[in-house]
Amino acid sequence: MRTRAVVLREVSTARPYGATRPVAVEELELGAPREGEVLVRTAAAGLCHSDLSVVNGDRVRPLPMALLGSYMGDAVPSRDIPRFLGLWRAGLLPVEELHTGTVQLATEHVNRSLEALADGTAIRQVLDTSGLLAA
């Protein structure tokens, strides 16, 4: 199965990241789930300072690697979605304040987003991975 990922091949502190492009969106072959694993369709993933710390070498990881972003939690939709909507409607769950932007899954956009994290103009950005896995 084919998928796309944000891939870092070498650490880079050269900025601006929008110009130096330390990461690239690449198409990869994804093996079938192994024993104890499941395949999850990803609608979005976060791009945040934990990713930046791998790109700039503050956190050492084996390379090349796909940046993992932030995948969170587990949900029982019939129970949780109505609850979350109720909290949001009551002004108690301001999800629009939890990220500073949505980023297209394309090399140039991801690198510009890393630069925004590095210069402090973004806190957490959501990678739009719509269409990542075929239906």
UniProtKB/TrEMBL annotation:
Keywords of this entry: Metal-binding, Oxidoreductase, Zinc
Known cofactor(s): Zn(2+)
Pfam families for this protein: ADH_N
InterPro entries xref list: ADH-like_N, GroES-like_sf
GO MF terms held by the record: metal ion binding; oxidoreductase activity
Family: Belongs to the zinc-containing alcohol dehydrogenase family.
Record protein name field: Alcohol dehydrogenase-like N-terminal domain-containing protein
Source organism (scientific name): Streptomyces qinglanensis
